Amino acid sequence: MPPHPVRVTAVDTYDVRFPTSRGLDGSDAMNPDPDYSAAYVVLRTDAADGHEGHGFAFTIGRGNDVQVAAIEALRGHLVGRSADELCADPSVLNRDLVGDSQLRWLGPEKGVMHMAIGAVVNALWDLAAKRADKPLWRLLAEADPAWLVRQVDFRYLTDALTPEEALALLRRGREGAGERTARLLEHGYPAYTTSPGWLGYDDDKLARLAARAVADGFRQIKLKVGADLEDDVRRCRVARAAVGPHVRIALDANQRWDVAEAIRWTGALAAFDPYWIEEPTSPDDVLGHAAVRRAVAPVRVATGEHVQNRVVFKQLLQAGALDVVQIDAARVGGVPENLAVLLLAAKFGVPVCPHAGGVGLCELVQHLSMFDYVALTGTTEDRVIEYVDHLHDHFLDPVVIRDGRYTAPRAPGFSAAMRPESLARFTYPDGAFWAADPDTQKEKEQAA
C-alpha cells in the first residue's frame, strides 16, 4: 500500500498579548504604550511525526484581534491540502494567497491582509524546515539556487532585478558557503541592542543599561528619539558618556517627522556622532527619505520595518534613499518576499540590518541574516541584527546572545514556536493573566 498522503488538518489561531506597556518596554515617540502582541497561527497535519508549522504577525495590542481575523480568512487555502506538496514547493501557497483576488482587494500586498499572508507563509516554512530536520537558515543556505529563485515573486521587480540576475547572485553566494557555515556556528552573527534606549526610560536606567550593553559585548546601541528635542539632546549626551566614543549609537524616530523636521532634528543631534537615523519620516515616502539622506550625510539613513512590500524596497534602493535596509520577518509576505528584498539589497550593494525585538522577531529574523551571510552576500561587514532583551522566555527555541552576537540556531524550524503555557497564560482576553486583570474584565463587561 502506498503511504497515506500527509494533509493539513487544522489552522489554529491565537490572540496573544503581553503587558509590556506597564514597564514602558518598547515605548517610542510614535508608540508610547505598546502591549507587544502576536496574531499567532499553528498549522497542524496528520503526519505521524507530529510536526507543526508556527508563525505570527507582530502587533502592539488593540487590533491584534483584527490581525487574527485576517489570518483566519486564509484557512480555506490550507485545510485539506497536501503538506508534502506545500513543503516541497512553498511558492505554490504564496501564489495562492497573494492571488486570492477578493482578499487582494484589501491591499493589494500591504496592510493587515498581507501581514496575515506572511504569518501563514512563515508557518509553512517553519513546517518545511522541521520536516527537513534543519534550522531555516540552513535549509535556505543549502537549497538549490534555482529552487530558491522559484520561491520569489519577481512581478514588479524585473526593472531592477531579474530572475537571471538573482540566480547569478545565489550561485556566486554559494562559493565558500561551507567555510562560512563553520564560522557562523563558531562565532555567531553580530548584534546591536535597543534595550537601553526606550523613550519611557529615565536617564539613570538609560545609562545603566547602556553601560551593561557594552560590558556584554555589544558595539552598537540604539536610542528612540523624536518626541522632544531638548530631551533627545540630553539623552544622547547620557548615552554617549555611558558607552564612550568607540561604540556606535543609532537613533530611531519611528516615523515621527516631516522631511524638513527630520533634517533639522538630525542635524541637532549630529554632535553625538549617530551612526544612523532610522525611520525619519513616513515609511512610504521614498523621495522624502532620499532628501533626508542627501541632507544629513554622513549620518546614514535606515528604514524598512514598516515598508509594506518588495516594491517599495525596490523604489527606495532605486532612488538612493537609504544606506541601511531593515527587513522585518513578519511585516511583508513572509520568507519569500524577504528573500526578494535580500536579493535586491545584494544587487544594489546596500547592507541589511534587520528590525527585531517585539514578540519573536529576533527569533525569526536571525535566520534570514544568517542565510544572507552564508549563501548570498558572504559578509557581515556593516551588518548587525537588532536585539531586544524581553519575551524570549516564551519561545521553545529562544535566541542566544554571546558577547554581543547571535549564536546560530541548531534546532529544526524557524524558531517560531511559543511555549504552550505562554499561550495559555497570555491569550487575550481569557488567558490566565488577562482573566485575572481587572481592566481587561471591565473592558469585557463594557463590550457585553
TrEMBL record:
Is Protein transport included in the keywords of this UniProt record? no
Do the record's keywords include Transmembrane helix? no
GO biological process assignments = amino acid catabolic process; carbohydrate catabolic process
Q: Which SUPFAM superfamilies does the record cross-reference, listed alphabetically?
A: Enolase C-terminal domain-like (SSF51604), Enolase N-terminal domain-like (SSF54826)
One protein family per Pfam: MR_MLE_C
GO: which molecular function terms? L-fuconate dehydratase activity; magnesium ion binding
Q: Which SMART domains match?
A: MR_MLE
Class in the EC hierarchy, top level: lyase
Query: Which reaction(s) does its UniProt entry say it catalyses?
Result: L-fuconate = 2-dehydro-3-deoxy-L-fuconate + H2O
Q: Which UniProt keywords apply?
A: Lyase, Magnesium, Metal-binding
**EC number(s) from the headed UniProt entry:** 4.2.1.68
Q: Where does the source fall among the domains of life?
A: Bacteria
Cofactor annotation? Mg(2+)
The record's section on InterPro entries has: Enolase-like_C_sf, Enolase-like_N, Enolase_C-like, L-fuconate_dehydratase, Mandel_Rmase/mucon_lact_enz_CS, Mandelate_racemase_C, Mandelate_racemase_N_dom, RHMD-like
Q: Which residues form the Mandelate racemase/muconate lactonizing enzyme C-terminal domain?
A: 203-299
* PROSITE patterns cross-referenced by the UniProt entry: MR_MLE_2
Q: Which PANTHER family match?
A: ENOLASE SUPERFAMILY, MANDELATE RACEMASE, MITOCHONDRIAL ENOLASE SUPERFAMILY MEMBER 1
Q: What is this protein called?
A: L-fuconate dehydratase
